[in-house]
Amino acid sequence: MEQPTFYEKRNVFETAENYNNGIVNFFMDVDGYECYVLKQHGLHDFRHENDAHDELLFVAQGSATIELNDETIQLATGDMLKIPRGVIHANIIAHHAILILFEMKG
Predict the structure, then answer these.
(1) Measured distance CA(39)–CA(23) in Å, rounded
(2) Structure pTM?
(3) E strands along the chain, which residues?
(4) Whose CA, among 12, 22, 28, 71, lies 20 to 30 Å from 36?
């Protein structure tokens, strides 16, 4: 018996319009991975690490400065960054950015 197919279409920019600066917003669940939309402007210094999984960060709009351990990386629209598990990181400065974050559930 063939499994039914369900499609889920959402617009990242419409989702981002509905949220305040700096809020992490759940967007979609994809086969055990969660996708979040982050709408940010200004200074954000929430250093953290994920011991259980890697993160994938995509800049959909704007630019961001990401700090990984002691390294600083500049990202622009269209850039993608894999952040390995165990790496201390923070989104230090975002310039009217819409970021999309993918990570495993849990």
Answers:
(1) 7
(2) 0.77
(3) 24-30, 33-43, 55-68, 71-76, 80-83, 89-104
(4) 71
